[in-house]
Amino acid sequence: MLKQRIITALVLLPLAMALLFYPGLEVFSLILIPIFVIIGWEWSRLLQTNMIIKSLFIAFVIASLCGTFYWLNQREFFDYPVIPTNWTEIHPFKLLIVSIMAWVVAFVLILLYPKVGRVWLRGPWVRALFGLVFLVSAWLAVVLIRSTDIVQDHYYGGWLLLLMFVVIWGADVGAYAFGKTMGKRKLAPVVSPNKTWEGAMGGLITATVLSTIAAFFIGLSFSLAWFVLLALVLVVVSVIGDLFESMLKRQAGIKDSSQILPGHGGLLDRLDSTLSVAPFFIVALLIFKHGLSLNL
To answer: Rounded to an integer, what distance in angstroms lies between the CA atom of residue 111 and that of residue 199?
Structure first.
């Protein structure tokens, strides 16, 4: 299993790096669509329902992503990725806020599982709605992060995405290492029995240190002190994303979302934290860049 995981990671890493930096924004966005379609198919396995509902859900995700892409393209987003003065009033930002609110609800369901969470998640449509919001907003968030200052520097958004993944990967690696060596107290025994508080704290420390070092070399438009605070928040959000998928898999009675990645499970299993972290990260970047005046 470990050998498979290493081989798969070595194959995917250069492909992921090329995707982050090489293509233009419009091509990058188009490439992301089939990736998120696969994640949508994997999410449909968590619905515990028949194939017709699954197919409808996948088609809905595809239509939503393509519709969002088309709308952004019509507004010349890909030629002029500049947030207007009233940036809090544009539709993409509002979708990100809806996503953040949905993640807050997801966190509450994790805390209340299984007593209340199991009731809320009993029907497939609630889980389908969560998936739709999370997938579309994460796709949009990743595109917006990649578009950051792209006119001035084509690669800057790619570095920001890499920085986001350093936070997520650092949290995963740190949690695994500290959890294996020192883990005793269960973090969420009902949702994910293998996760411990020691592992979570180890992930928090590892991700914050590694991402702060990476941020120093990348160079940010705001201070490293603010980034350290942001990194701490993003690590917590990444854990929530991981736990929420674990909760849905436990509800559905499956171990992995699919077997598309040998040794790793499915794309959803590897990118569950990205779904939660990306909207928070881009909203933080927008706030740091444009201020705290949120006229919603």
So the answer is: 18
